[in-house]
Design a protein that fits this description.
Rossmann fold, 5 strands, binds flavin mononucleotide, five-stranded parallel β-sheet
Length: about 240
């Protein structure tokens, strides 16, 4: 299996440790991993120039930072995103990366390989459980057409630099292991969900309509992949 991990933070705190618990049960010797720490390995803030949408992703002013991560996402069978809860949202660097990947949403130019991948999102908070954070990161992967995203969000009640208390840690380890097993099963038999097929059909119709000519780059993507005709990404992986 190929796994791409994107950390929404550069430090190795509680969130990183929960991710390690998942990886401990998930990763086998032969698996390959690509790992990125944000903001260090990530792009500058999206400046809203629309070049990725209108001209192509290579024209983004931060393409040199975005494209290695985008390629790693496309390469992987499993994509893992993690981020601490910052004011009930994902971290700023993670959100910034997601802004840069908007061109890969199904409404623009989804990558064919995404329809059979598996996602995992991890978050931790000090107080309230980070449900909104994992939901928000999962939503990003879902709009990029990942059919199944597993979520792990835990309130850890830790002060800065403090370890998770042993009882809480055991509970997290138990859930991390359970999810890792489910991910392995899913990745061994990847399949596209009904939701992705329906979404594909809706956006295929939009890309077929004359109004889609407002963005020829998106439209060409759909036409050149044969998606307006009979080809389907979950059958051909492109
Ligand atoms: C800027 C900032 C905002 C935070 N906002 C929240 C919050 O809204 N709710 C919460 O429960 N914890 C919040 N926290 C605490 C962290 O989510 C929590 O300590 C988390 O486990 C830290 O993970 P880390 O060790 O991986 O950095 C915040 C921390 C920071 C630095």
């Amino acid at each position: 299996m190929k796994i791409t991990i994107i950390h929404g933070q550069a430090h190795k705190g509680v969130t990183y440790k929960i991710t390690q618990m998942v990886l401990k049960s998930l990763v086998a010797k032969q698996d390959e991993i690509q790992e990125f720490f944000l903001p260090k390995d990530g792009p500058n803030f999206c400046c809203g120039c629309y070049k990725c949408f209108m001209k192509g992703e290579a024209f983004c002013p931060s393409a040199d930072k975005v494209q290695p991560i985008a390629s790693a996402i496309e390469w992987a069978d499993i994509i893992l995103l993690d981020s601490p809860n910052y004011v009930m949202e994902m971290s700023g660097p993670m959100k910034n990366l997601m802004d840069h990947l908007a061109y890969r949403w199904i409404s623009h130019r989804p990558h064919g390989s995404m329809f059979t991948k598996t996602g995992i999102v991890v978050s931790s908070s000090a107080g309230a459980p980070p449900r909104g954070v994992v939901k928000s990161m999962a939503r990003q992967l879902k709009w990029m057409c990942v059919p199944k995203v597993y979520t792990l969000g835990f309130a850890c009640y830790t002060a800065p630099g403090e370890e998770i208390n042993p009882k809480r840690k055991r509970k997290i380890e138990y859930k991390a292991e359970k999810i890792a097993r489910a991910v392995k099963r899913r990745a061994a038999r990847p399949r596209t969900g009904l939701r992705e097929k329906v979404m594909f059909s809706i956006f295929r119709k939009m890309q077929s309509a004359p109004a889609s000519a407002w963005n020829p780059t998106d439209r060409d993507w759909w036409v050149n992949h044969g998606w307006i005709e009979k080809r389907r990404p979950w059958k051909n992986n492109t």
